[in-house]
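Pilot study result, target chain (542 residues):
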Amino acid sequence: MRSAIFPLLISLSCLSEWAQRLGVEAVFLYSTLGASVTVPCDGLREYHNSYISWVFKHRSETTVELSRGGMITDTDPDRAGRLRLGSNSSLHIDRLRTRDTGVYICHQYINGMHYTTGLTVTLFLLSISVSSRSPACLRAGDRLTLKCGLDCGGGAGSCSETPQGPTLSWRDESGVPLKDERDRYSIAELRGVHSQLSVTLRQSDHNKSWTCVLTERGEMKTSESYTTTLSDELFSTVGRLLLLSCVAPVSLGPGETLRWTYRQSRTSQAVVLYSLRSLTETPLKGTVPHSGRAVMSANSSLLIHNVQTGDAGLYCCQRDKDSGPKKTHRTFALNTLSVSSNLSEEAQKGSAVTLTCSLTCGFDCEENTELIWRDSIGNSLQGGTSERNKSTISSQLVLQPQSSERIRCSVEREGLERVSQDWTIKIEAGPGGKFPMVEVVSAAAAFCVLLLLVFIIFLVMKMKKTKKEGKKDRVPSDQAEERPESVYHSPEEIMSCAAPPHTDDVNYTSVMFKSKKRGPEREQTFLPNSDDVIYSAVTTTQ
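Predicted structure:
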């Protein structure tokens, strides 16, 4: 019974003729990767003791039975898990893959015998692929080429035989058809149902969708879109901590996986750094060269500890399903900057020191990117020699420093600094283990301290001496000895050293001093009158 039907499923070119001969209608069904589709089984009547059987043939593979009598009979567990039987004996296929493309036929059996054949449906999937000529890391100014076509398992346009009538067109996010536009768009129609779009990217094209629409008899049957993700260019110095964000919050559906991939600069193969599936973090092994320095956080960000030169490259955060196209959330082109010296130890005064500054680009280094040497106050240093290729830029600077100094290497583009790293040149210690200037300063400081100590000692000794003399001068009053001395001159005579005048009835003042001092301690003593003559007496205590 089956042998009489299966040889008829030879090619699409004879499908219509075979369908007309059997009186059945040939139908073409179009969908996209990852979508769901319903394959109809029309034109059959229900009879007592009858059942429906579905068979399928993919390209040149052997024909297989998918269902019989309302039960899924496919022996392929992956495909069987995606098949369902609906009303009117229709067949539902979920999460479409390219291996699902081919011819589907429903047969009706009565009392176990083949009775009739329903619709013959050929399923095509529309897909978009990026041309190998397009750069893997997209930036403004790049030329992107997209190919759209029917996919039979080998990518867009891989179907050897395609139906007549369907047409393809390209539209932007607003649904406006794209046309050839000089220096912006270029559209080419290829063999069969196959079209190509080339776009010169602008910065505004980041996260922009380009849609390929399949139309048959004026009716849109299906469409597929591609979203351009322009890479974010990052600069980092060696030794830093770097955080690359993806998308937050992370919400993964059934069969979805979030992955961080890394492709080292100037290499073609990407490795998986981390994979997140069903909200369970499962780090993959063999993630050279990061060796455990890269960690994916709970919010899907990638954290790189102690950035190294070899970390330069492309980092991509993607979400994909078990079936269907990948969706790229973020792409980063990481450029790393490092500065090194030909000396591992301190340099001697006046000796030659060679500094090397290297920039390793995550993708191709842009032509307007330069390495600039500057001193500690920002002045540009001349004399550096540079070398450049697609992925690296290096510059060497030779100096003969007389003292320790800090040198900076900066990455500049169009006059703007993108990143910089400092290097301090240390001069070796001179004789005696001290730098000349430090020795002079130390000697001067020691001399000043010595002078200060001498001055303090002098002040302390003088204060003690003064205190001691003060105690010696203070004699108790009860021990003072009075030794009066008579003076037979008036105060005026004493001051003028003149002879006293000889007059009668002259009063003299009697004054007695207990010490040589002429201060408040002096006292007056009046002597008794004698012959009505008052004499002045001045006594001084020695």
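One observation from the pilot: Helices lie at 15-22, 77-80, 436-473, 491-496. A full batch analysis is planned for the follow-on phase.
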